Automatic annotation (TrEMBL):
<protein>
    <recommendedName>
        <fullName>Sulfotransferase</fullName>
    </recommendedName>
</protein>
<dbReference type="InterPro" id="IPR027417">
    <property type="entry name" value="P-loop_NTPase"/>
</dbReference>
<dbReference type="Pfam" id="PF13469">
    <property type="entry name" value="Sulfotransfer_3"/>
</dbReference>
<dbReference type="InterPro" id="IPR052736">
    <property type="entry name" value="Stf3_sulfotransferase"/>
</dbReference>
């Protein structure tokens, strides 16, 4: 089925036929799905392989969504599951967010969503078979088939079905997220996701998704991550009013070339026509807007009270002590098991969070100077200088 002719209803009907199910939950996803298909045709410059991969990915998301709502219908008690004091990580991309998510995953009190269970969510994972579930291999094989094992991409970010992963992959099931514009060049869809989509509904789905995942295997609290959270703080806090929000800080001029390199390699899975400067321009605007929205939201003391700020260098150089201060700030138990888990990560696992191989990137590749990036992020940098008078983010100059 070609993306030049396929419609949202075509894919919905195909997923219903595959699964034998027809319960979708809220219907807003149909708007985003049709827009995604339209912009795939008009804007994305997909290769034939990229088109095939994207349609296959959409089919998998639709089938997984159907299975989630079918399972909820057959197990109505899951709606009573509570999500208590979840931790959300929402710093800029390439500012240590993956490192922080992986570090916190080594506290045995914590539950993190892993790639395999995000895309093969039903039946909900069991604690007894969590490390041996056959879906781990299924999703790993799919990742490799879709090109996520490529040397260039793995150098920028490790992809593995067993690793903790972003909420963005959960959001994909709503077809109202910024992950699709990372995969492919679809600026019209990106604007819809950032400005027009119903994010209260997106977070409602997110909450239901977590309820399902923890039905047979719950931790004391969830640890969750994606830079997208910065854009939609009112909706996040309306859904999770007791959320703990962690913001990692690193100079924007130090991260933009790395981010553009990462997204460029990702887009090569779907298109043979990828322009790093086009990538940089779109994501510079998007991430600057996310940081501006975060600053605006934190002008409200009630919102600001949810936050804890973490410097990139502190996270890299003294991860366990940085976490000890975080736990103290929110009165979280820092047990002997917590200490052992975090120290094990710092001593043995931290390097695995980074890409495999040499990741080469520079501002020259993306057509921006450090001054231009600082100008784009001026509201964030000015706010940071005022809030943390003793520390000013280093520039990339």
């Amino acid at each position: 089925m070609s993306s030049r002719t396929v419609t949202a209803q075509d894919l919905i009907a195909a997923a219903e036929k595959t699964t034998g199910m027809n319960q979708w939950g809220e219907q807003d996803f149909r708007t985003g799905l049709q827009l995604l298909l339209d912009t795939m045709q008009r804007e994305a410059r997909l290769s034939d392989l990229g088109r095939e991969r994207m349609l296959s990915r959409i089919d998998g998301l639709l089938c997984n969504r159907l299975r989630i709502y079918d399972w909820r219908a057959r197990h109505p008690e899951v709606a009573q599951q509570t999500i208590t004091r979840p931790i959300f990580i929402l710093g800029l991309p390439r500012s240590g967010t993956s490192n922080l998510l992986s570090l916190l995953s080594f506290d045995p009190a914590h539950r993190v969503p892993r790639m395999w269970e995000i895309f093969r969510s039903v039946p909900p994972p069991s604690r007894d078979t969590y490390e041996t579930d056959p879906r781990i291999a299924e999703v790993q094989n799919q990742l490799m088939s879709d090109g996520f094992g490529s040397e260039g991409l793995q150098a920028t970010h490790p992809f593995d079905s067993r690793l903790p992963e972003e909420c963005g992959f959960i959001f994909e099931h709503t077809f109202a997220c910024m992950v699709f514009p990372a995969y492919i060049n679809i600026p019209t869809f990106a604007k819809y996701a950032m400005d027009d989509a119903d994010w209260r509904g997106v977070y409602g789905f997110h909450q239901q998704f977590l309820q399902n995942l923890q039905a047979n295997y719950a931790g004391e609290r969830w640890v969750l991550k994606t830079p997208e959270h910065s854009h939609f703080l009112p909706d996040l806090l309306a859904t999770y009013p007791d959320a703990i929000l962690l913001y990692t800080h690193r100079a924007p001029a130090q991260i933009m070339s790395s981010l553009a390199s990462n997204i460029t390699e990702l887009r090569k899975l779907w298109s043979d026509q990828v322009d790093p400067k086009e990538v940089a321009a779109s994501f510079l605007a998007a991430e600057a807007e996310g940081s501006r929205r975060m600053v605006e939201a934190r002008k409200d003391p009630a919102v600001d009270s949810h936050f804890y700020d973490i410097e990139f260098q502190d996270l890299i150089q003294q991860p366990v002590e940085t976490m000890r201060r975080l736990y103290a700030r929110f009165d979280l138990p820092f047990t002997d098991a917590t200490q052992r888990g975090l120290q094990h990560y710092a001593d043995n696992e931290a390097k695995k969070t980074h890409g495999h191989g040499k990741h080469k990137h520079s501002l020259a590749d993306v057509g921006y100077s450090a001054d231009e990036i600082d100008t784009a992020f001026k509201p964030y940098l000015d706010w940071y200088a005022r809030k943390h008078e003793s520390f000013r983010l280093p520039s990339a100059r």
